[in-house]
Design goal:
Arc Repressor Mutant, subunit A, globular, binds zinc ion, 2 domains, Dna Ligase, domain 1, DNA-binding, alpha+beta, homodimer, 3-stranded mixed sheet, binds manganese (II) ion, 5 helices
DNA sequence: GTGTTAATGAGAATCATTATCGATTGTAGT
DNA sequence: ACTACAATCGATAATGATTCTCATTAACAC
């Protein structure tokens, strides 16, 4: 009488992580999220934060953003192909569902005999608020 | 009578590092470069490899490429603004001095009230050789 | 409820990168 | 060529992020 089921379980920790990401408009690293979760509620173990972020990312539920420092940050984004416009001061993230690279990418790939080409792009700058700090 | 000079010294190690980078068409991480240098010649200390790559990168002498894993790889590139087309199989790097993002970047920035916007983009795929491995 | 087993969490282990600091060495000056 | 000295090197310790271990907990199908 084996309980045969390998589906994903709805744990309290995962709910907390998703909730934290969902309410923010910026991306958080595992460390940052762990810290933030420690305060509120009952906290979530660091390993659990890493595990869930990693899983959710490969399931496509959230987006992984690689910071210039090399750390990975995560954000609950809308679906479909898009890029990010990130404020390098406050971290605010704007989703860009209007991708202007497809044509360029395709053309370059052909010119150099490359196949199965993927592209990755990101814009960084100062958002309206942070840019006001003249 | 102090020897007042803070210029960059021409050390044997730096020459070796530059030579190794210059002969390759792919990017190397500090670890990889250290390993490669260990075989040939008299080898260079790991810390020295890190120091010099870091320095050369911020001096603009070489390019730093952030891999998806988070490690930083370096390559001796041509000057001026450009992007990279990288084979995800063999690591070959093609410099793209034809940047097709300026317009898109500018427009997006204006639309969202961002200023001082920089863009970063990279194409990955299979080069002609690696794509032949049907 | 009970059983099965995915999920958790405290802490050890990895791995890349950085910091130490005494030993070298490039160089301007003589 | 000889000196003086700061820049550089290199062996190694330290850091920091991420992953692994494994005993304990808790979803959830029956
Ligand atoms: Mn996104
Ligand atoms: Mn380059
Ligand atoms: Zn901002
Ligand atoms: Zn290739």
């Amino acid at each position: 009488m084996p309980a045969h089921d390998q589906s994903t379980r709805r744990t309290e920790q995962r709910r907390a992580i998703l909730a934290a990401l969902g309410s923010a408009d910026r991306a958080f690293s595992a460390q940052e999220l762990h810290e933030r979760l420690r305060a509120t509620e009952h906290g979530v173990g660091l390993a659990t934060v890493y595990r869930n972020l990693g899983r959710m990312a490969e399931e496509g539920a959230i987006d992984a953003i690689l910071r210039p420092s090399g750390e990975t940050a995560y954000r609950a984004c809308g679906h479909g192909h898009h890029h990010h416009l990130i404020c390098r001061e406050c971290g605010r993230v704007v989703e860009l569902h209007d991708c202007g690279l497809s044509d360029w990418s395709r053309r370059i790939a052909a010119e150099h005999g490359f196949s199965e080409v993927e592209h990755q792009a990101e814009l960084t700058g100062l958002c309206a608020d942070c840019g006001a700090a003249a």
